[in-house]
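A student in our group prepared the protein record below, which I am reviewing. Thanks in advance; the entry in question is below.
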Amino acid sequence: MMRSEEHDHRHATISLEEKEDLLGLVHMRFGHVPEDVKKQIMAIDHLDVLDRLFLLQ
């Protein structure tokens, strides 16, 4: 059973805007974002992975 504050990402899709938001956060935190890192972030297809990266920021 899920708690109310948990998210169910089994059917969620990741929008381009969410990936761009993460890239913006990475840029603000670390400065220049290498092209290979940008490509890896844009290739993320699991929302739980994207959520974890946001939390690490």
The chain has a mean pLDDT of 79. Helices lie at 16-30, 35-42, 47-56.
